[in-house]
UniProtKB/TrEMBL annotation:
It catalyses: uridine(54) in tRNA + (6R)-5,10-methylene-5,6,7,8-tetrahydrofolate + NADPH + H(+) = 5-methyluridine(54) in tRNA + (6S)-5,6,7,8-tetrahydrofolate + NADP(+); uridine(54) in tRNA + (6R)-5,10-methylene-5,6,7,8-tetrahydrofolate + NADH + H(+) = 5-methyluridine(54) in tRNA + (6S)-5,6,7,8-tetrahydrofolate + NAD(+). This is Methylenetetrahydrofolate--tRNA-(uracil-5-)-methyltransferase TrmFO. It is found in: Cytoplasm. Its EC number is 2.1.1.74. NCBIfam families: gid_trmFO, PRK05335.1. Keywords: Cytoplasm, FAD, Flavoprotein, Methyltransferase, NAD, NADP, Transferase, tRNA processing. One of its GO terms (biological process) is tRNA methylation. Residues 5-374 form the MnmG N-terminal domain. Its cofactor is FAD. The gene is trmFO.
Length: 451
């Protein structure tokens, strides 16, 4: 008899992980605390409940990264994606889902699977023995959160995200912006030029503050406490405290010289810092915000150098339990210090229903393969699944790690293609063609191993 796989959390990730492992022939015990213990966002006792919007976002697998991830999950007979397809609602190019029948069907299929046992229980410790996947999501129960923090170190587990917007490097106007670290600090040329700086005149700064103050903001959900304030104030809250606050905080202009206008001292400077090893993404330093998405795009494009900026993700602050995965997890999603334990879903620092289910799919297959004695390599870097797992377990900067959704900035560039807005469609198609080939090969390899 093979070892059982225990999965904690029957959300998007845990449900998918359980399905994948069970389909590979492994006995699975799925521990879900609802409905006995609830969260402020879940309403039902169903597995795979969609807590807020009913959208899996774009279904375009040719020119959209999340659409490509849909494709990969369908190719792997993912439970979440194939069930979503059966409960699809009209939504243009997006995959919108009729949430209750969707969750009911996921629950029924798992409960009736001969290899799956669903136990209604809250797990509050990281066990020393056995093989486990923790997929307890952004609202991991407090007792388990404390146990994880004890095992990983309190500074390696966050309870709120504070997401600054992330910009595609190629969309920054380097005729206005320049590369320089404050006071040219750093041992190497790479470190001395680690930041991209966008200068503002006094008039531009005042107009920017006006726009920040006037912008529409989102509120916290009911029950989502606002004790995030230490050290991660939203920029609009800083601006509300005084018009000069940002100029003395993240927008201070000191230690920087604009090579395009060396005789002109900027009144304020917005800095962007590299967000991934590939150097394709930059985050706007200290610009976490609760502004609505539409407002963010127009306000941030007021920054000189970012007029044409394209955003890989916009900013936000949410209740969100997540690990510092680049430090803690290997590319198999195992805790480096305790390899009998894997993590999956949003707690690994991915963001969104689809990305969470994708990490569940991968963790379920990798754990089951290990139990069956024929371990699998992790997802290939050129697939969307692989781009995401490599980002969270290594490509992302550990010091500033914040949750990420899948986007083309995580993909290795395809050689010989035009950069910029004009070449975009061709580039995206090249990424998704390459991703499909890589994912097909990985699935075929996994199937051969099983034969
Ligand atoms: C308020 C809110 C709104 C959101 N809105 C959206 C949105 O509109 N679109 C989107 O794509 N994403 C949204 N998200 C993120 C979304 O929740 C995740 O992307 C997705 O559900 C994560 O999947 P998961 O499996 O990692 O976690 P979940 O789907 O949350 O599943 C985790 C499961 O673990 C269970 N659990 C927790 N602790 C324990 C324990 N100790 N023992 C046993 N079981 C436990 C929970 O009950 C839950 O069922 C939102 C999140 C929140 C908090």
């Amino acid at each position: 008899m093979t070892e059982k796989l225990h999965i904690v959390g029957g959300g998007m990730a845990g449900s998918e992980a359980a399905w994948q492992a069970a389909e590979m022939g492994v006995e699975v015990v799925l521990h879900e605390m609802r409905p006995t213990v609830g969260t402020f966002a879940h309403r039902t006792g169903h597995l795979a409940e969609m807590v807020c919007s009913n959208s899996f976002r774009s279904d375009d697998d040719a020119e959209n990264a999340v659409g490509q991830l849909h494709w990969e999950m369908r190719a792997a007979q993912g439970l979440v994606m194939t069930t979503a397809d059966r409960h699809r609602l009209p939504a243009g190019g997006a995959l919108a889902v009729d949430r209750d029948p969707f969750a009911e069907e996921v629950t029924a299929r798992l409960k009736s699977h001969p290899k799956v046992t669903v136990e209604e229980s809250e797990i509050t410790e990281l066990p020393e023995e056995g093989r486990w996947i923790f997929a307890t999501g952004p609202l991991t129960s407090p007792a388990l959160g404390e146990a994880i923090a004890r095992a990983t170190g309190a500074d390696q587990l966050a309870f709120f995200d504070a997401i600054a917007p992330i910009v595609y490097a190629e969309s920054i106007d380097m005729g206005t912006a320049w590369r320089q670290s404050r006071y040219d600090k750093g041992e190497t040329e790479e470190e001395r030029t680690a930041y991209i700086n966008c200068p503002m005149t006094k008039d531009q700064y005042e107009a920017f503050i006006d726009a920040l103050l006037a912008a529409d903001k989102t509120e916290f959900h009911e029950g989502e406490t606002a004790d995030y304030f230490d050290g991660c104030l939203p920029i609009e809250v800083m601006a509300e405290r005084g018009r000069e606050t940002l100029r003395h905080g993240p927008m201070k202009p000191v230690g920087l010289t604009n090579p395009h206008k060396p005789d002109e001292k900027p009144h304020a400077v917005v800095q962007l810092r590299r967000d991934n090893a590939l150097g394709t993404l930059y985050n706007i330093v200290g610009f976490q915000t609760k502004m609505k998405y539409g407002a963010q795009t127009s306000v941030f494009r007021m920054i000189p150098g970012l007029e044409e900026a394209r955003f890989a993700r916009l900013g936000g602050i949410h209740r969100n339990t997540f690990l510092n995965s680049p430090t803690l997890l290997d590319d198999q999603l195992r805790l480096r210090a305790r390899p009998n334990i894997r993590f999956a879903g949003q707690i690994t620092g991915v963001e969104g229903y689809v990305e969470s289910a994708a990490m569940g799919l991968l963790a379920g297959r990798l754990a089951a393969a290990e139990i069956l004695g024929r371990p699998l390599p992790t997802a290939p870097a050129d697939s969307a699944m692989g781009a995401l797992v490599h980002h969270i377990t290594g490509g992302a900067e550990a010091k500033t790690f914040q949750p990420m959704n899948v986007n083309f900035g995580l993909f290795r560039p395809v050689e010989g293609l035009k950069g910029g807005r004009k070449g975009r469609r061709e580039r995206y198609r090249a990424y998704t063609d390459r991703a499909k080939a890589a994912w097909r090969a990985w699935l075929a390899g996994a199937a051969l191993d099983a034969a």
